[in-house]
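Lecture notes, part 5. Sequence design as translation. It can be helpful to think of inverse folding as translation between two languages: the language of shapes and the language of residues. The source text, in structure tokens, appears below.
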């Protein structure tokens, strides 16, 4: 009997273990969430509540619109300098990034065309001086009866012709921003009409230049020899959709952000809106400026632009972007009605900015919104609380 009993002991133990494993766990059952329609209730001892974060919504008096913009040089303080003469570059007197004053010399060009213009001006001046002396002598002789009237008329005609030629030659030199000096050296000095910084330089000593390159239909030939600008202030060029046109007005403040400096915001202002739509993109060009005193931003950067638009009516709330989820094309959030009880509510979202999203409809003051764990609660709701 003892030997038989010893063989039964392991069998009984296994049956007891199996029975215990099949018995219900009261604590596990009490921790299961309860689902009713669009509401999920988590018991106080539910471990899932630790993954849920609730925040009270914040009313907003302004709406933030986020647009994509492109930085460009401020054309009111920028000049693109092309050579007006053909010739060979003898020297370049400025470096890239150098600060220059108005009318500062940038480069010196040995130009036969400019030398010819100098020679024409000098010859026209000499011819005018000779014609003036001849006219004075003819008048004196005529007054003393020593010259015929036709000689005086011829002298007056020659003087008028020499005067016109001198004015033409001087006007030709004026096209190069030069005045007749009497010297003929053929060296043209390329200057900047505006003060600023040399932000682009496409010229080197020994380079051959032509004055008609800027007329060629080729991007590599359209590049100016110099660009002088004031980089402390840049333009922001925006493409505005038809839906946003009514919300934007010149004078609105801009907040400009660049991916290169994600933690830095640059202040600016909207200056103007275009008067026509682009037929291809159906957008209108808008332009503003941004303060670049620290010289961090660069022309041709793509930036994000935030514009605060005052609300015209109703109340708008801002919640964390993680609070909003989409189902079958509709947007929802979960509202905590009482601690542990969450109700799914449809909302109308607006613009997203800085990790937050505006809610135009569906929320009320003092609503407590689930900001972390919305997808978890939605999964519980869809499965009816079964795990």
């Amino acid at each position: 009997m003892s030997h038989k009993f010893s063989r039964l002991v392991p069998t009984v133990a296994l049956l007891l273990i199996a029975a215990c494993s099949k018995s219900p766990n009261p604590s596990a059952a009490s921790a299961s969430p309860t689902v009713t329609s669009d509401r999920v209730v988590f018991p106080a001892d539910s471990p899932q509540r630790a993954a849920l974060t609730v925040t009270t919504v914040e009313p907003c008096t302004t709406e933030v619109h986020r647009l994509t913009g492109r930085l460009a040089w401020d054309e009111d303080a920028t000049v693109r300098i092309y050579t007006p003469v053909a010739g060979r570059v003898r020297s370049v007197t400025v470096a890239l990034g150098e600060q220059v004053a108005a009318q500062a010399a940038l480069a010196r060009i040995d130009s036969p065309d400019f030398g010819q213009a100098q020679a024409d001006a000098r010859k026209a001046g000499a011819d005018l001086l000779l014609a003036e002396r001849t006219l004075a002598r003819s008048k004196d002789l005529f007054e003393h009866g020593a010259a015929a009237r036709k000689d005086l008329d011829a002298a007056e005609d020659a003087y008028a012709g020499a005067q016109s030629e001198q004015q033409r030659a001087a006007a030709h030199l004026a096209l190069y921003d030069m005045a007749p000096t009497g010297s003929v050296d053929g060296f043209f000095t390329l200057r900047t009409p505006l003060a600023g910084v040399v932000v682009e330089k496409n010229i080197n000593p020994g380079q051959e230049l032509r004055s008609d390159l800027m007329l060629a239909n080729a991007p590599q030939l359209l590049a100016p020899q110099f660009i002088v600008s004031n980089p402390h202030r840049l333009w922001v060029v925006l493409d505005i959709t038809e839906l946003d046109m009514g919300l934007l007005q010149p004078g609105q403040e801009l907040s400009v952000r660049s991916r290169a400096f994600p933690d830095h915001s640059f202040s600016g202002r909207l200056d103007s809106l275009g008067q026509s739509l682009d037929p291809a993109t159906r957008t209108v060009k808008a332009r503003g400026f941004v303060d670049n005193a620290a010289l961090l931003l660069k022309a041709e950067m793509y930036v994000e632009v935030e514009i605060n638009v005052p609300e015209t009516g109703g109340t708008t709330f801002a919640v964390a972007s993680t609070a909003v989820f989409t189902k079958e094309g509709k947007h929802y959030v979960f509202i905590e009605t009482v601690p542990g009880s969450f109700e799914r509510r449809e909302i109308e979202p607006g613009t997203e900015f800085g990790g937050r999203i505006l809610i135009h409809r569906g929320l009320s003051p003092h609503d407590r919104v689930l900001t972390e764990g919305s997808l978890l609660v939605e999964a519980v709701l869809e499965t009816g609380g079964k795990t």
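The translated text above is only one of many valid answers, since several sequences can fold into similar shapes. Confidence is low (pLDDT under 50) at residues 1-24.
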